[in-house]
Fold this protein.
Amino acid sequence: MFEPSMAAPSMMCISRSPQRLFLALSVLLALAACSSRPEPALTIIEPKQGSAQTIPVELFAVSMRRPSEDERLRFSGERTLVPRFARVVISIPKDRPSGEIQWPNGSTGDAGSHFGARAFETLDRDAFKASMARHVSSKNGRHVLVFVHGYNTRFDEATFRLAQIVHDSGADVTPVLFSWASWASLGAYPYDRESAALGRDGLETLIEKLSAEPGVRQVSILAHSMGGWLTLETLRQIVIRRGTLPGKVTNVMLAAPDIDIDVALAQGSVIRQSRKKPRMTLFVSTDDRALSAARWLWGSRDRLGAINPAREPYKTMIEKSGVKVIDLSDVSTGDSLKHAKFAASPAIVQLIGKRLASGQDIGTAQGGANPLTAIVQGTTRAAEAVLTAPLRIGETAAPPGSALSE
C-alpha cells in the first residue's frame, strides 16, 4: 500500500461529543430514506411458463453467519466462529440494464423479470470442496473470484450483488462469496465492525485453502466498503504468520474501502513485506456519502475510499506505491449514497471483468498498451469508452508482484 512515512493531511479539529454516533447515523438514515429496502428474496422460484429467458449464475458461499429458519434469508446476522458452506444458483433476467439488480416486489417474483434463487443447498466442508472443484475445472482460466461484502449487507443482498458483478462483467470465474456477520442495519455499525474483525480467521482459511487447491490457478479478491478493512487485515495477518502471501493470490481490488487512512498505512507497511505480492487496485470517489458519514462517526482522518488521488500527499503516495487508483468521482450511477459505483456502473464492472478477472492486469491492455489514462462519465457512450480510458491518475502499469513494493 502507501508509504507509511508519508503523513496524511492534518486532522480537522472535530469535537468528540457523545452525539457523534447519533449524528453520523442520522446522516446515513437521511441519505437512505429516499429508497426503501427490498424484502429478502432467496426463496426458490421457478420461471413462469412463457416468461422471459433467464441466465443462471452459480456461486459458492462461505458464511460466518448463523443459519436462519427464514428461507428468504438463509443466513442471519448472528455470528458464528464455525463457517457454513453453501452452493447457490441465482437466476438473472436475460434482458435487463447492466449494473442494476432487479429486486422482486415482495419476497418472491417472476424469474423472468427479477433476480431470484433457482437453487440453494448447504454443504459440509468436503462436499463444498468437491462441488467447487468441479466448477473450477469447467473454467478455462481456473480462476476464483472471492467477494467480500461491506457493512449493512444481508446474505441475500451479497449473493445478488456477486451474481450481478459476475454476469455483467462477463468474467469466466468461479465466484465465491465470503459473508461475514453483518447485522444489515444502518444503526449497527459498531456491531458490524466487530463482526468483520471476527471474520479474519475465516477469510484467511478460505484464502489458504483456495491457494492450496491444485485445480485453482489464481485467486482474485474483490472487497467492498468495510469488507476492504477485513481484507487488508486478513492479508496482514497472513504475512505476519507466513512471511508471504500465497502466490496464487494475483489481484486484490478494494472498492470504496471504509478504512482510516492511517490504519491503511499501517496495514500496507506489513503487507509490503510479503515476498509474493498481488496487484492492488483501489476504487475511490470523493463524493462517497457513506464514507463521509463514517469519517464523522470515527472522528478520524480521510477514509481510504474517499481520497482525492490528484492531490498531495496522496498523489505522491500512489506514485511510489504502485497501487492502481481508479477515481470514480465523475461517474454517475443510481446509487444515492454513491458508495457502490464499482458495481452499479456498467463500464466499470465490465472493466473489472475484462481486464482483471480474465487474468490480465487491470491496468494493462492486450499488446502492452495502458488503457488507464483518463476518467470518463458513466454515460452510455462512456460505457463503451471506459475499457480504453477509465483512469485519471496512476497511469504507469506496475508489473506483477510490484504493487506493494517500495
Q: What stands out?
A: The beta strands are 54-67, 75-93, 116-123, 143-148, 174-179, 218-224, 249-255, 279-284, 324-327. The CA atoms of residues 38 and 322 lie 40 Å apart.
